[in-house]
Amino acid sequence: MILDNHNRPINYLRLAVTDRCNLRCFYCMPEEGIQFSPKQELLSFEEILRICTMMAQMGVNKIRITGGEPFLRKGLIDLLRDIKAIDGIDSIAITTNGTILHKYLEDIIDLGINQINLSIDSVDPQRFFQITKRDVFDQVWSCYQTLLESPVHLKLNAVVMQGHNIEDIIPMVALTETEDVSVRFIEEMPFNGVGKQAPLIWDYKKILVHIKSEFPKLEKRADPPGSTSLNYRIEAYKGTFGIIPAYTRSFCGSCNRIRLTPKGIIKTCLYDEGVFSLRDLLRAGASNDELSQAILQACSHRAKDGFEAESSRKGKLKIAESMATIGG
Ligand code: SAM
Ligand code: SF4
């Protein structure tokens, strides 16, 4: 078991398998895209599997596959199958924009992967287009409908943004009346690839007040250990909703996650600038023992929260990277 210097156990790896994406959600990357990494700079599947196996031996038992859009990585299903077979990995989850998932859903279900977070920031096709810059609402909505009928445990992710999708908050909570879905509203963070963000208006408190004004009968649900969302249910509704204070960063005290970027950089906090390149170490011929020591060393110097991590940036002081290069 990895314990960091603040006594937080780390058992959850967020693994970004690509930085490429077929959407251009403006809060994540500019319309012209970002400088996508050449293939040889990405971790190969062999490298990913070696790292995952090693991390499982160190106590990591949950892996979330993200990106970029993970389904754009060729051969993803083969990778998932191999990760699934690693001793000690109990849970694999995927975060996706749902545009091409339909091609792979059967394989995903056959593999027994049953946790998918589908990002959908608006239930209105026009607003969806304004946010993502791509005319794919129908595909994503149809993916949502298909997932509802599948055995997958489904969460919807929506970033809340003034002037873009405030009208969607109440209709999205309303989806939980009849569907067993968990809708999560995320505070916008500055990882938009351009380094500019207006001051945050819709923090978690404002989102909650807004929801309460329409649905006064809210039940607070227990927040599982390591959960980043504050979870609620509307009385008698089937599903739940949560609010993720991703910018306010009030959940760092129980953070159990470590991140591996598509290029193999280890991040011990979303807000740090990357602690070291596991890929470079691995490609220089390091043994598993040396790799795991490097990970333990990074975890023993972990920032206590996202504010400390942000202020310890040395190279890129200002956050300007795209979430697609980190894995959200
Ligand atoms: N492409 C996939 C998707 O959109 O679900 C996976 C990668 S995406 C980077 C993962 C999550 O990060 C998405 O739910 C997305 O909404 C969220 N995200 C991206 N940029 C963000 C930002 N600047 N602030 C808050 N959340 C962000
Ligand atoms: Fe692509 Fe996901 Fe970023 Fe949107 S949030 S641009 S879908 S990586």
- Mean pLDDT across residues: 96
Question: What molecules are bound to this protein?
Answer: S-adenosylmethionine, iron/sulfur cluster
How many H/I helical runs?
Answer: 10
The fraction of residues assigned to DSSP E strands is 15-25%
CATH T-level topology: TIM Barrel
The main sheet orders its strands as: 9-10-11-8-7-6-5-4-3-12-13-14
| Quaternary structure | single chain
Describe the structure.
The protein is globular. The chain is of the alpha/beta class and 328 residues long. It has a single domain, classed as Aldolase class I (TIM Barrel, Alpha-Beta Barrel). The longest helix has 13 residues. The protein is 27% helix and 19% strand.
Topology:
Elements lengths: L1 E2 L5 E2 L1 E5 L28 H13 L4 E5 L9 H9 L6 E6 L8 H6 L4 E5 L5 H8 L4 H13 L3 E8 L8 H6 L7 E6 L16 H11 L3 E3 L9 E5 L5 E5 L12 E4 L4 E3 L8 E2 H6 L4 H12 L6 H6 L17
Parallel strand pairs: 3-4, 3-12, 4-5, 5-6, 6-7, 7-8, 8-11
Antiparallel strand pairs: 1-2, 9-10, 10-11, 12-13, 13-14
Bound molecules: S-adenosylmethionine (SAM) and iron/sulfur cluster.
Task: Considering the chains and any ligands shown, give keywords for the structure.
328 residues, alpha/beta, TIM Barrel, 12-stranded mixed β-sheet, two-stranded antiparallel ribbon, 10 helices, 27% helix, 19% strand, globular, binds S-adenosylmethionine, binds iron/sulfur cluster
